[in-house]
Amino acid sequence: VRHSAIVVEGSFDAMKIGPGAVALLGTGYSQAQVARIGAIPTRAICFDAEPEAQARARKLCQELEGQPGKTFLVELDAADPGEASKREIKELRKRFLE
After folding, report:
1. C-alpha closest to that of 96 among 8, 29, 28
2. Could you report the per-residue pLDDT of 71-97, keeping only the tens digit for each?
């Protein structure tokens, strides 16, 4: 990951998205992780659709606001990035990784 990344909760979500996806291994994160994510110029935060996960995704986006670059909050049609359709993953990759 150099210029852009899609940040997800789990490793299976990251594997489904492919190169350029990074997993936090849950909705929790450390300030060290925030700093590393903040060093990536374009980052898309793509957590599960459940309300608690979306609230944590919004909080992470807020914490990244002060960092240079752009942060995007992504909500998929699927309940989980690992369950997203091939079409949705392709669109996600095109928008943020290509």
Report:
1. 8
2. 999 999 999 999 999 999 999 999 999
